[in-house]
Specification:
The structure is a homodimer of 293-residue chains. With 293 residues, chain A is of the alpha+beta class. Chain A has a single domain, classed as Coproporphyrinogen III oxidase, aerobic (oxygen-dependent coproporphyrinogen oxidase, 3-Layer(aba) Sandwich), CATH 3.40.1500.10. The first copy, chain A, is built from eight helices and ten strands. Chain A has helices spanning 13-40, 95-98, 156-170, 177-188, 213-238, 245-264, 267-274, 279-282; strands spanning 56-61, 66-74, 79-92, 109-121, 128-137, 141-150, 190-191, 196-197, 202-208, 289-291. In chain A, the strands form two sheets. A seven-stranded antiparallel beta sheet of chain A has the order 1-2-3-4-5-6-9. A two-stranded antiparallel sheet of chain A has the order 7-8. In chain A, strand 7 (190-191) and strand 8 form a beta hairpin. The longest helix of chain A is centred in the first third of the chain and has 28 residues, at 13-40. The first copy, chain A, is globular and about 60 Å long. Chain A starts with 12 loop residues before the first helix and ends with a strand. The interface between A and B is medium-sized, with 23 and 23 residues. Strand 10 of chain A pairs antiparallel with strand 10 of chain B, so a sheet runs across the interface.
């Protein structure tokens, strides 16, 4: 990173390094937990054609500064495609983005690091899920992130369990955090053209900077930890169930809604593609097998 | 349509009616030609599980004015999904669009009619194709449209044949039409994040109003006629060939690029979804079976 932007704490070099190290740690822990499920799922006639898989890691450099490591598990027994990507990038915003990003008008340089997760299970009974946490530095600095669940067949107990995990993660940091961030999630993951939510929610937060970097960082760590803990448990509960061809088709159609959301509305996707991000890493979120019948 | 906008010829009531009638005629002719192919394809082990299908028509009304008729052929022997949609709509542009559409700043009311076609063949050896022609009226009036071809396996002879059809359609109207409109097509159907063109081109034109409505209408008719003539011939030439599973996967991946283009970049799609168009009709363009491996 260049010297001019927020190198003094908070959001200085030491904090950037700690955030980047943490995102790598999240990648490591989550990949390990998902690989464990690949090994422990029961074999039945619907998944026996697929071997348990592990994550393959590919590092990439970004033109203009920084890079990342994609960890992708493909064609597994539980997970048809799961991506757990980390990146640490820096550069300059194009004119188009300078008015849209806090602190970028004064100086277009930015630094950004994060971990981004999208999981597409093979079984239509195991929910799709997404988690992202990130730290951004311009002339300002902040955290953002969240996690959300997209079941094909919503199950109230499962939904509650997922929300509880994030409610618990939010509780120590502010009485209103969970309410605000779960509402933000519902608003964000909405497809106006379908008049549908993408899934059953979770939390979403952005531009989060209370003035106390340590606490904001710890909150962001706890959000990721909540996901690393709850999602594999949810997947484990459903992964041994058998499904029908009708359920599989419903899943492929639901995945189509996921694609529509990501390409039409998701700011992270559109922002990444338009600022020279790594296309393969960004579009790792797209499902492996989709139907628009 | 209300009385205040361009009701005097050109782009008045009589011209609107003639344009709308013509788009319905295009739908009728193209559907008939595609249905003919469904009946005449040779049966082999890759298509024998599928019966020849015909188009099903569904009419819809638009909140705010007008409506359309979707003609969709699903799960056929030659065509996995083909949509030939017509619509005649009117309404008012939201504030967001008034500066983007010629003539809408002065008065936000619009009238628009068109025919829009997307064809997804079952065989990866038969090219995907798209055609659209439309007439738009605000305080100004114009035509737009074009046709383009997206083969999974480009074939120079086939590409030339497709381009020749549009070159011939353009020739009587202006020496530079084909060159300008084929270049416009290449520029329009480009995926910057993939550094790929969507297909092998064709023509694309918009805001077309020379001051001579009759001639501009006839040009737009000839563009549609070129497509109705050339695409079924191209499909017929390849529809009896057998394909491999690898070719099928390549097709499903190519269809993913098609989805990326339509949802990230296509002005018609985004415009339609954001102006209260019929979601099912607009997203009829999305392929039936897609892979992002």
């Amino acid at each position: 990173m260049t010297d001019a932007i927020a190198d003094d704490a908070p959001y200085g070099e030491e904090h950037k390094q700690r955030a980047a190290d943490w995102f790598a740690e999240v990648q490591k822990r989550l990949c390990a937990r998902l690989e464990e499920l690949e090994q422990s799922v029961q074999v039945h006639e619907l998944n026996e054609a697929f071997e348990p898989q592990s994550f393959e890691r590919t590092s990439w450099d970004r033109d203009g500064g920084g890079g990342g490591t994609m960890a992708v598990l493909r064609n597994g027994r539980v997970f048809e495609k799961a991506g757990v990507n980390i990146s640490v990038v820096h550069g300059e915003f194009s004119e188009e983005f300078r008015d849209r990003v806090p602190g970028a008008r004064e100086d277009p340089r930015f630094w950004a690091a994060g971990v981004s997760v999208v999981i597409h299970p093979r079984s239509p009974l195991v929910p799709i899920s997404h988690m992202n946490t990130r730290m951004i530095v311009t002339t300002e600095g902040w955290f953002g992130g969240g996690g959300d669940l997209t079941p094909v067949y919503p199950d109230p107990e499962e939904t509650e369990r997922f929300h509880d995990a994030f409610r618990d993660a939010c509780a120590p940091y502010g009485d209103d955090y969970y309410d605000r961030f779960s509402k933000w999630c519902d608003e964000y993951f909405y497809l106006p053209h379908r008049k549908e939510t993408r899934g059953v929610g979770g939390i979403f937060y952005d531009n989060h900077a209370t003035g106390d970097w340590e606490t904001d960082f710890k909150f962001t760590q706890d959000v990721a930890l909540a996901f690393v803990s709850v999602y594999p448990d949810i997947a484990r509960d459903k992964m041994n169930l058998k499904w029908t061809p009708e359920q599989r088709l419903a899943q492929r159609v639901k995945r189509g809604r996921y694609v529509e959301f990501n390409l039409l509305y998701d700011r992270g996707t559109i922002f990444g593609l338009k600022t020279g991000g790594n296309t393969d890493a960004i579009l790792m979120s797209l499902p492996p097998d989709v139907a628009w019948p």
